[in-house]
Amino acid sequence: MQKGVLAGMVSFALLAGLLVAANGRYTAKVPGGLAFSEFRGYEAWQTISVSRHEKVLAVILGNPAMITAYQAGFPGNGKLVPDGAKMAKVHWTAKQNEFFPDATVPGELLNVDFMVKDSKRFADSGGRGYAVFDYDSASDTFKPGTSANTPAQGNDAKCGFACHTQAKTTDYVFTRYGRR
User: Fold this and answer.
1) Do 112 and 133 form a contact (C-beta atoms < 8 A)?
2) pLDDT per position as a tens digit, 119-156
């Protein structure tokens, strides 16, 4: 009987450990309250656009509220993005495709940037909350970006506000929705 209890306890401990590891990415949070968990499911959001330069390749994704705003004509329609609209920008190192050398494909995951429209919660930053989460491949987890990053990142929920003020006339959104 003791062996059965011990085996059950070991099984439970292993299962609990696996669950914690699987959900580890969702425990990261930047000062000011923006948490990775607020963007759960971002991996399945629709693509808004892509960007790249010599070293980094990125895809910009939007939740259904953001996609609906774009499909309604944002930013050209003059309307603001609704509260609850979210965007994610996933960055990878750029690498050459092994089968098509002229093509660039994602390499190592670097970080994920998030932006949410919440006019009440982030009234002092244009109604936007921002976060940068760096990926640690050794532990398969994310942690808030810091001023030691390249480029340097603030690590609070207003970290992107200074940069995004350039896009104030388009509700602090740089990215255009590509015609499809």
Assistant:
1) yes
2) 999 998 889 998 999 999 999 999 988 766 655 556 55
- Residues 68/69/74/79 CA torsion (nearest 10 deg): 140
Strands (E), 46-97: 46-52, 56-62, 86-96
Q: Which of 98, 91, 89 is nearest to 53 (CA)?
A: 91
Distance CA 93, CA 37 (A): 24
CB 47 within 8 A of CB 60: yes
Domains (range + CATH), the chain? 2-170 (3.50.70)
Q: Is 5 helix (H, G, I), strand (E, B) or coil?
A: helix
The Cα 68–Cα 117 span in angstroms is 14
Contact 113, 132 (CB under 8 A): yes
